[in-house]
Write a structure and sequence with these properties.
The structure holds 2 protein chains of 2 kinds. By secondary structure, chain A is α/β, with parallel strands linked by helices. Chain A has 2 domains: 2-87 and 163-268, Rossmann fold, CATH 3.40.50.300; 98-161, no CATH class. Chain A has 9 helices and 9 strands. By secondary structure, chain B is mainly alpha-helical. Classes of the chains: A alpha/beta, B mainly alpha.
Chain lengths: 269, 300
């Protein structure tokens, strides 16, 4: 908890962010005029149709894309700085595990690359594999695990460097709905227990509403934020909360936002 | 019965391979009649003997200095030059195969190392990518038969003889598939995995060891199989122009000087068997490595 005290209050601060990709058909505006502030400990979902730039926005935060103009601060420093300080963990759309490494060795990979001492590597890997309920599968290889378990390994891997920030780019997009619900509950638990800041990309409304403390609704071409919704459901949530009136109301508002984004797009086209 | 064969030690490909072998033998014996009978018929005519087709077939399969010797003649030649000779004798095919094998292996090792180094250079240095690749491709358009004598003569002039010049020709042939394969392999990691290592701030060397090299290994082994066969071809070709005293190439040459087709074919069979064994050895390591890289899962 001490480490959190010295962190700046805002985990992510984005001002007037514009990102243009140069393509053969000329420049494409992927993100336009993005303003977003995320406080420490928040769970923020970015939701929008494909091509709205939500993944690109997270990639900018992670220093995997460079903004064209605008300022971006991650934990109070530039994204590149944040990346060099290992202040975030990144979970990709697919598990992205190395097939020749065991589950445990996959979790150790970032620690090994960053030069952690051997005993510390094992300690951290054990700790975070236990956190995602995979201690029994340490010695297995990725192909011996189901898709949901593989994605849990990749979450453990992102957590193993103990970052305060977690970027998740549609991590459960490829999973079946039952597994997805299950992992949503686990992730919610994990967020509650670790008090990490999570930036979560999704195109599923129920997933966003269930997981988040705030939801950022985005529209495509150019990628813009059209609504930011506080998701003030009770802190203790089980998957059943999805049948509550409050849940449905928030879902409705998200859906309205997404619709508005689309009609805006139609008018401009 | 077939299922037992399949699951047994013999492996599932035995029956098809034997079938093909049988077919080849039949075609070979028929070919021997076709190619050898004109000579025999001339001879019969000169000597004025009456001949039957059975006689013709029998004679064409057992002719001395036949245009196409029959398989059993080659087998006898192999027995004469392998089993009936001491291994160290200059008449032993084992000795000659050994000579060729040593330059094949040296050339293969040198070619593989050169190929991998070039590939790493091409993948990591943009200038090399643009400047080297055209030359590498051009190098392979020069017929090795034209180049080999010059290499041997030039190196001989500066006092380098024996194993090294021959190995250099093998190396010249076999670095190419290695370079092409490894370049493709080193460039094959998924972008997502490269991004992942980028988030760890991994430097180029770490990306190479943890990701690019393991991902490139299957491509490397596919190339090594081709390179191994080419390396043997290179070694044999290298033994032709210099009038080499030993090696399968020199046996081919002396066989053709003296019209000893049996000798030529015996040397060719040795070359083919050597090549098959060498490629199989590479294949064995390929399976080991690929199984390791798939996390113990048997590669398809």
């Amino acid at each position: 908890m001490n480490s959190i005290a010295i962190l700046p209050e805002t985990a992510v601060q984005v001002q007037q962010l514009v990102l243009k990709f140069n393509t053969n058909d000329g420049p494409v505006v992927a993100l336009d005029g993005i303003d977003l502030t995320i406080e420490q400990g928040e769970f923020v979902s970015l939701i929008g149709p494909s091509g709205c730039g939500k993944t690109t926005l997270v990639r900018v935060l992670a220093d995997l894309e460079k903004p064209t103009t605008g300022t971006v601060l991650v934990n109070g420093v530039a994204p590149e700085q944040a990346r060099l300080q290992q202040s975030y963990g990144y979970v990709f759309q697919s598990p992205a595990l190395l097939p020749w490494r065991t589950v445990k060795d996959n979790v150790i990979l970032p620690l090994e690359i960053m030069g952690y001492p051997k005993f510390r590597q094992r300690e951290l890997a054990d700790k975070y594999l236990a956190l995602v309920y995979l201690d029994e599968f340490k010695g297995k290889y990725p192909w011996q695990l189901s898709g949901g378990m593989q994605q849990r390994v990749s979450i453990a891997r992102a957590l193993s460097v103990e970052p305060q920030l977690l970027f998740m780019d549609e991590p459960f997009g490829a999973l079946d709905e039952i597994t997805r619900d299950h992992l949503n509950e686990q992730l919610r638990q994990l967020w509650r227990n670790t008090s990490k800041t999570v930036v979560f990309v999704t195109h599923s409304i129920p997933e966003a509403v269930f997981l988040s403390s705030r939801i950022v609704v985005m529209s495509p071409r150019p990628g813009r934020i059209i609504d930011i919704i506080d998701c003030d459901l009770p802190v203790d949530r089980s998957i059943d909360i999805r049948e509550s009136q409050q849940f449905l109301e928030i879902s409705h508002r998200v859906r309205q936002g997404l619709k508005a984004g689309h009609s805006y797009n139609d008018q401009s086209a | 019965m077939i299922s037992r064969l399949r699951s047994g030690l013999i492996g599932s490909s035995t029956l098809p391979v034997l079938t093909i072998l049988f077919a080849i033998l039949i075609v070979w014996y028929l070919g021997a009649i076709y190619l050898n009978s004109p000579q025999l018929q001339d001879r019969y005519k000169k000597q004025g003997v009456h001949w039957s087709y059975i006689q013709l077939a029998y004679d064409s399969w057992n002719m001395k200095r036949a245009v196409l010797p029959s398989p059993h003649q080659i087998a006898l030649e192999l027995k004469r030059t392998i089993i009936d000779q001491k291994v160290t004798s200059k008449r032993s095919l084992v000795y000659h195969t050994g000579v060729t094998l040593s330059s094949t292996l040296l050339g293969f090792v040198m070619g593989t190392l050169l190929g991998i180094l070039l590939a790493i250079g091409i993948v990591y240095v943009t200038t090399l990518d643009l400047s080297l690749m055209p030359w590498i491709i051009a190098s392979q358009t020069i017929p090795i038969l034209a180049l080999a004598p010059m290499i041997i003569v030039v190196l001989g002039a500066i006092g380098i003889t024996g194993l090294l010049p021959k190995s250099l020709i093998s190396m010249y042939l076999c670095f190419f598939p290695v370079t092409v394969g490894v370049v493709k392999g080193l460039r094959s990691p998924q972008p997502m995995l490269l991004d992942l290592l980028e988030t760890y701030n991994a430097n180029k060397i770490k990306v190479f060891w943890h990701l690019r090299l393991p991902v490139a290994a299957p491509y490397l082994f596919a190339s090594l199989k081709v390179a191994m066969a080419l390396s043997l071809v290179g070694a044999i070709v290298a033994e032709l122009p210099a009038g080499a005293q030993a090696g399968l190439g020199s046996r081919l040459l002396s066989g053709s000087y003296y019209g000893q087709t049996n000798l030529i074919w015996a040397a060719l069979v040795c070359a083919a068997l050597t090549s098959a064994v060498l490629v199989a050895v590479v294949g064995f390591f390929q399976r080991l490595v690929c199984r390791y890289l798939a996390g113990g899962q048997e590669a398809v």
